[in-house]
Design a protein that fits this description.
By secondary structure, this protein is mainly α. It has helices at about 25-40, 50-55, 60-80, 95-105, 110-115, 115-125, 130-145, 160-175, 220-230, 245-260, 265-270, 275-305, 305-335, and strands spanning about 15-20, 45-50, 85-90, 150-155, 185. The protein folds into two domains: about 15-190 and about 305-335, HUPs (Rossmann fold, 3-Layer(aba) Sandwich); about 220-300, Orthogonal Bundle (Tyrosyl-Transfer RNA Synthetase). The protein contains 13 helices and five strands. A three-stranded parallel β-sheet has the order 1-2-3, sandwiched between helices. Strands 4-5 form a two-stranded parallel ribbon. Strand 1 (about 15-20), helix 1 and strand 2 form a beta-alpha-beta unit. The protein is globular, with a radius of gyration of 21 Å. It starts with 13 loop residues before the first strand and ends in a 7-residue tail after the last helix. Bound molecules: adenosine monophosphate and tryptophan.
Length: about 350
Amino acid sequence: MHESRSNGAGQRHRVFSGIQPSGSFHLGNYLGAIRNWVAQQPLYDNIFCIVDLHALSLPTTRNQLRANILHLANVLFASGLDPEASIVFIQSDVSEHAELCWLLNSVTQFGELRRMTQFKDKTGGKEEQVSAALFDYPVLMAADILLYDTDLVPVGEDQTQHLELTRDVATRFNARYGDTFVLPKADIKETGARIMSLEDPTKKMSKSDASPNAAIALTDTPDVIRRKIRRAVTDSGSEVVAGPDKPALTNLLTIYSLFEGEPIPEIERRYAGKGYGAFKQDLAEVVVAGIEPIQRRLTELEADPSFAREALAAGAERARTRAARKMAVVRDRMGLGLADG
Ligand code: AMP
Ligand code: TRP
């Protein structure tokens, strides 16, 4: 089912992924990313990072960022990340991320960054006002990944272009300074990598959507979830079937299938002739039941923030040891400083 899990030397493959502490988390984040991290946790040597430096690329405030970091940590632990099985830490606790970003800037081309579609999307035509950090965002992401000799990066489909850039930057660095970085591969699942908006199935479900009904937040109450699914747009026709000409139903069936672990054709067979109403009603209950255990643990964790604080401090300690070892090699290769003559 999974691709090979260890390298020739018998070590488990290294997995690294990151997520921004930028407010609420939705079904796309959960089904496209977090859930896969949790499921694969026993198979790999895992590192998961709360990328607070990335969050600085868009306007935020001190209090908001603080609250968002703690909330994300609790969401990750409530979803099943285990701080014993995985290194979970805050990016800014390990200063090597920012340092390597600067060094990689020197082997990244301005034109490469200008071509990033996420940059173009996030600037919304206002290139003159956005921060330089937003432009440089993919290089910091490359630094995150390359710092840990990462083999696999489990992400949603929207990160493909950033992963390609990471490989290009690593290849260029290796050609110029000698073999230093492992070339990472994106780990993108066939299903769930792109959960779509409930209001417009041609757009991905996103935190930044202006309409609150486009996304289901992991913290939505059962009644809110039921209402959002009832109001979700559907395609013309009345049969519960997926297909290229049925983007809305395909999205709803995908969500159902991922939560229930049931293949889409079986779900289609079960709802044959029953219409959209009955399917949506059941889908709402599937989502409510799928999220309920996470919400319950989240409430418990929020009552005891010391769990997250301690786990993140221990995670940072472990990450720092690995990052420092790698940075010593990188500095030496580039001829920085005069250590070791
Ligand atoms: P972000 O919310 O952009 O920080 O994304 C965090 C993770 O969730 C990344 O791995 C994204 O690729 C993934 N993700 C975000 N939105 C979606 C979506 N609509 N469908 C699937 N995965 C998503
Ligand atoms: N850019 C990613 C996103 O928006 C978050 C991220 C930052 C990341 N650094 C990373 C993902 C390293 C994977 C690996 O979702």
